[in-house]
Each structure stands twice: as C-alpha cells, then as structure tokens.
Amino acid sequence: MPKARNCSVLIIIVILSLSTGVCSYANGPPIVYLYPDSTPVHVNLFFPAGSPLERFTGQKDAWYAIYQTSLYPGYAYTILIRHNGDPDRMKLYAMDNHPFDKVSVKTQLAMKRVDSAYPSYKETSYEAVVSLPERARFADLFLLLEWLPATGNDRPLPVSMQVVSTGYGQLMGRGRQWGQLDSWRPESSMQGRRPVVIPFPER
C-alpha cells in the first residue's frame, strides 16, 4: 500500500508539471514556463528570500517566483499579471538568464493597470509590452516576480501570468486575421504602442 500511494503522488506531480510547464533548474528553485499565446498560468511557486535573489533587490522579507518564456526577436509581446494585491508591493524584472546564473541584463518592467479581457476573472490585470532586439543572441526571457508582504507573516497572494504576442497578425500568417477559434485571445489595450526593448546581447 505505501508503494502504491507513493506511485500515485509521483503521477500527480508529473501530470501537474506537464500541464503547467513547471521545470527544475540545477540546484535552484523550480521555474514556471509560460508558453506564448497560451491560456493564463495560475501556478505560483513563490519562495522566501534568503537566497542569491536578494542581490537583485535587497528586500529581505520579499517572496519570489521565477518564470521563463521564449520570444521571437523583433516582435512585441504583452506580459499580463492578474492579482488583487497592492500593486506597489509587486515588481517584475526581465532578465537574460536564470537569476541563479550570471545575469548581464536586468530590467524592471512598469506594469500598467488595465481592464481584464476575461469577464470571468475577478483579479485586477496589469500588463507591459516588451520585445527583444531583432538581432538578439538569445530568445529565452526570464521573469523574476517579487512580492513584498505588508507584514513578515503574510504569504503571497494568488497570481496568474500570461504572455501574448501583441503583433500576432505578423507572427501568424503575415497579417492574416485570426479565425473564430482564436476569439478567446485577449486584445491588449496597449496594442500598437512602442514596446520596451529588453537590451539583450546582439549577434
């Protein structure tokens, strides 16, 4: 019976990892992979400070979560965060490498409050439009989400993350309009605005 129970727990963990894109990284904490143009991800692997991440912000009481995504260089993407917390207590940093490795680029993203594209979501939405240089050497983008609690005993609030290609008309079909099957995709209120170019090393 104990073996069967352990096997069931292992299967559940594997299924959760596959369905949400949870990845382990060396000896560091797990990261959540964000597939561009996919549905929002509600997995939050927050962990307290007291790790090498403190060197980025110096916030000893902050909690952190690490996300990873891949972007086509030269195209704009919208990063969406949904939560009902104090926006001043949450910061998002874009990096060119995993925070536990050597990071040469770190950019804090200014998140703008917007109306949610999903009526069923009650969380407040915040977004930023970003892009990589057209000749970027790498396509992987790491996101470090920092949450500073009001008191030392507070735990992180539920957060959902999503990455949407803002210029999807150019990405898919060279200007072709999306069909009815793609009507679930959120229209960004910042579509058409100039994105923040993350200064990745170029070829």
Q: State the CATH architecture.
A: Sandwich
The protein's oligomeric status is single chain
Instruction: Tell me, rounded to a whole number, the average pLDDT.
Output: 75
Tell me about the largest β-sheet. Answer: 7 strands, mixed
Tally the helices: 3
Radius of gyration: 18 Å
Structural class designation: alpha+beta
- Overall, the morphology is globular
User: In sequence order, what are the helices and strands, one letter per element?
Assistant: HEEEHEEEEEEEEHE
CATH topology: Jelly Rolls
Extended strand count:
12
Overall number of structural domains? 1
Q: How much β-strand is present in the residues?
A: 25-35%
Structure description:
By secondary structure, this protein is α+β, with helices and mostly antiparallel strands. The chain has one domain (30-197): Jelly Rolls, CATH 2.60.120. 13% of the residues lie in helices and 32% in strands. It has 3 helices and 12 strands. The chain has helices at residues 2-20, 54-57, 168-171; strands at residues 22-25, 28-33, 47-48, 63-70, 77-83, 90-95, 106-109, 112-114, 124-131, 140-147, 160-165, 196-197. The strands form 2 sheets. Strands 1, 2, 3, 4, 6, 7 and 10 form a 7-stranded mixed sheet that branches. Strands 5, 8, 9, 11 and 12 form a 5-stranded mixed sheet that branches. The model is unreliable at 1-19 and 168-184 (pLDDT under 50).
